[in-house]
């Protein structure tokens, strides 16, 4: 009896195994059959694409094409792969931009590391819905991450208004609005460092409203009004919830000819001073840019001249810890020029002059010579010689070099 | 007041009202504007952003263009990422809801045309500045010009239905003239079918396919990458081996390398126009093909 039981068990195991094997074979056949069907459909589709399209019927295999083809009465095969791709259609454009900086020379006042992966900017950008788009720029340092910008834009409000909400670089002058990787230098000018918060600049959470204003004779005029929480590095500090900061910018632009144009802006910013509660700082700025780019040879030659003048009207205690605050108006400016002398080569120079925000009697000056090479549209190599004379009567001579490299689909920056 | 009187007063008031304003069309390139002008005639106003003699890949998004876009009812674009480096910020900053991507007033004409060189397989930037959706210079085939015209006629009629018959008549007239011109162009190019040429950039695949040119190499080693000495040498050797005499160059590229190659092989570097407006005398879609085909046939005739 026991032997019979063992025999039965063995037979049933064998039958089970045979069934399992059959199932596996059937499964494999089914997979192959599905695969053949998918390939047949793919071949049919490819044959259909080869035929010359009828005029007026959308045909191009672009992102818009499937919807258009369906609208025209066509049928499109649906594959697993295409479904997977479709699920990614609404993913935002993603890009990563690396900014590697090396520094040689001696700077006793603002020392820099010999090598530094200065920033890795990660951008996510997409149209959100029929009314708005969203842009996020995360800035990864070697040891920390910050949200450089993250905002929602309503580009098509009634009255041609453009509204932004989120964290953003304030529209104060030109340099403050620029991300590191689009600067024409390795560093930022001294006036930006001393009076406008340096690399982070006036960059805060708030609302921005701008509009193109009516103007005569082909003049482009744009007004921007912004209100922020009031925290911007060492420029403004919100001691209380109602310590909001405000920024206003008026921009005038005109084409002098098809190759040359001039861009002039005036800026104003006001916010609570970081020195002490109850104090307020006001910044005034003028920026001017002259550009020349001959259209027939625009990829080979261009010139850009820039200047920015900034006044900072603030109150400060000239002696540390003193309860006596003195009103002062430190001032600073830079002037720079950049000439593209070949398809991938640019040479430039910059002169810096700036008093310091906390003591207008302290004055830094400097000068730089810059050489830039673009191996491609997506990478850039730059060298900069920088000489800075600090208020402490110390002089720094430095050589900076920089690699900027971009992967992904970073959108174009505004002009 | 009787209904009749009301109707009469309403009719008079309607008569006093100014005529509905023209459809305001902005195109990204002069080629689209030239075709749009053929269809819209004086019942639309049409203007372009990029000039025909500048590289359409690299246009500065100047604020003065925003003034055009702000008032536009319709924005017609080439698409296939040709304008990706400059048009998106202009659209975003225009403050014009009508022309935002996906809106009724945004017309991507690439979706109506036959597109060549659509990459297959894995695409990386190691291949240079490739257009992942296909070559965007598709307007250089008259058949695609016809498709663009039809798509524009439909869109103009949709947006300004009162003039639909006018647009339809203009389309018929355009197509008739295009058919006649194509016969002329085909006859001119027929003796040179299969001729091998070099082009600077990949601007002419549709033109080459339509008129039977055989583009065997490019001055650029890869799209958007400037000529290198080693690749230039390869091109020279190939031209010598295969007795190729013509290098076709877009008007916005430096002529030094093409001229140098031409000198080495005893050939000619020709500035062939990829766009309307590339030269002063080329102001219409027909003049573009007339100019290019005359230039080519004269040059081919020189090298029999």
**Count of distinct structural domains of chain B:** 2
Helical percentage of chain B: 40-55%
Strand share of the residues of chain B?
A: 5-15%
CATH architectural name of the largest domain in chain B: 3-Layer(aba) Sandwich
* Annotation field: number of helices of chain A: 4
State the strand order across the main sheet of chain B. Answer: 2-1-3-4
Q: What is the CATH domain class of the largest domain in chain B?
A: Alpha Beta
Q: Give the total of beta strands of chain A.
A: 17
Averaged pLDDT of chain A, please?
84
DSSP strand content of chain A: over 45%
Counting copies of identical and different chains, the oligomeric state is heterodimer
Low-confidence sequence ranges of chain B: 6-19
- Helicity level of chain A: 10-25%
Give the strand order of the largest sheet of chain A, numbering strands 1, 2, ... along the chain.
Answer: 1-2-3-4-5-6-7-8-9-10-11-13-14-15-16-17
Query: Which term fits the overall shape of chain B?
Result: globular
Largest sheet of chain B: 4 strands, parallel
Give a brief outline of the structure.
The complex is a heterodimer of chains A (415) and B (304). Chain A is of the alpha+beta class.
């Amino acid at each position: 009896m026991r032997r019979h039981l063992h025999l039965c068990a063995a037979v049933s195991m064998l039958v089970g195994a045979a069934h399992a094997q059959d199932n596996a074979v059937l499964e494999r056949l089914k997979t192959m059959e599905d695969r053949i069907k998918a390939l047949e459909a793919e071949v049919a589709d490819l044959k259909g694409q080869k035929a010359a399209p009828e005029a007026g019927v959308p045909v191009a295999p672009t992102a818009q094409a499937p919807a258009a083809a369906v609208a025209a009465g066509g049928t499109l095969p649906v594959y697993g792969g295409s479904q997977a791709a479709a699920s990614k259609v609404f993913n935002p454009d993603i890009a990563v931009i690396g900014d590697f900086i090396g520094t040689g020379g001696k700077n006793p006042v603002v020392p820099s590391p010999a090598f530094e992966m200065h920033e890795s900017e990660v951008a996510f950008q997409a149209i959100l819905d029929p009314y708005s788009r969203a842009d996020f720029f995360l800035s990864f340092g070697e040891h920390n991450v910050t949200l450089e910008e993250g905002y929602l834009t309503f580009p098509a409000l009634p009255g041609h208004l453009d509204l932004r909400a989120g964290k953003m670089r304030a529209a104060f002058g030109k340099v403050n609005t620029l991300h590191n990787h689009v600067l024409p230098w390795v560093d930022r000018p001294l006036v930006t460092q001393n009076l406008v918060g340096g690399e982070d600049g006036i960059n805060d959470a708030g609302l921005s409203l701008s509009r193109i204003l009516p103007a005569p004779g082909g003049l482009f005029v744009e007004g921007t009004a912004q209100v922020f929480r009031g925290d911007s590095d060492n420029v403004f500090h919100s001691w209380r919830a109602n310590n909001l900061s405000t920024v206003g910018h008026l921009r005038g632009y005109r084409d002098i000819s098809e190759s040359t144009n001039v861009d002039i802006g005036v800026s104003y910013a006001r916010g609570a001073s970081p020195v002490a509660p109850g104090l307020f700082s006001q910044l005034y700025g003028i920026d001017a840019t002259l550009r020349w780019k001959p259209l027939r040879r625009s990829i080979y030659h261009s010139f850009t001249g820039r200047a920015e003048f900034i006044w900072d009207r603030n109150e400060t205690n000239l002696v540390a810890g003193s309860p006596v605050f003195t009103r002062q108006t430190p001032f600073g400016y830079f002037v720079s020029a950049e000439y593209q002398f070949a398809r991938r080569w640019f040479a430039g120079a910059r002169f810096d002059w700036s008093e310091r925000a906390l003591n207008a009697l302290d004055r830094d000056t400097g000068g730089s010579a810059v050489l830039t090479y673009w191996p491609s549209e997506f990478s850039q190599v730059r060298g900069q010689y920088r000489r800075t004379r600090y208020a402490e009567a110390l002089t720094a001579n430095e050589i900076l070099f920089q690699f900027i490299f971009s992967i992904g689909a970073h959108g174009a920056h505004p002009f | 007041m009787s209904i009749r009187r009301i109707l009469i007063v309403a009719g008079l008031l309607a008569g006093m009202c100014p005529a509905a304003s023209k459809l305001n069309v902005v195109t990204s390139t002069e080629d689209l504007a030239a075709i749009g002008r053929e269809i819209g005639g004086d019942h639309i106003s049409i203007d372009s952003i990029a000039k025909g003699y500048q590289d359409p890949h690299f246009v500065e998004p100047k604020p003065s263009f925003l003034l055009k876009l702000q008032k536009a009812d319709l924005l017609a674009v080439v698409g296939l990422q040709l304008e990706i480096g400059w048009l998106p910020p202009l659209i975003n900053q225009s403050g014009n809801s009508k022309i935002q991507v996906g809106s009724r007033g945004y017309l991507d004409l690439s979706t109506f045309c036959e597109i060549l060189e659509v990459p297959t397989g894995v695409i990386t930037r190691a291949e240079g500045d490739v257009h992942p959706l296909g070559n965007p210079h598709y307007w250089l085939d008259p058949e695609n010009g016809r498709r663009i015209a039809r798509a524009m006629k439909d869109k103009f009629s949709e947006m300004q239905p009162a003039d639909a018959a006018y647009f339809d008549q203009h389309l018929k007239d355009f197509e008739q003239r295009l058919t006649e011109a194509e016969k002329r162009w085909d006859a001119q190019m027929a003796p040179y079918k299969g001729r091998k040429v070099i082009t600077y950039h990949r601007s002419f695949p549709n033109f080459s396919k339509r008129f039977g040119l055989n583009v065997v190499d490019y001055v650029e080693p890869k799209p958007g990458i400037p000529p290198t000495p080693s690749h230039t040498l390869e091109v020279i050797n190939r031209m010598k081996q295969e007795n190729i005499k013509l290098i076709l160059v877009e008007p916005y590229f430096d002529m030094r390398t093409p001229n140098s190659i031409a000198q080495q092989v005893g050939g000619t570097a020709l500035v062939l126009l990829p766009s309307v407006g590339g030269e002063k005398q080329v102001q219409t879609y027909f003049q573009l093909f007339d100019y290019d085909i005359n230039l080519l046939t004269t040059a081919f005739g020189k090298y029999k």
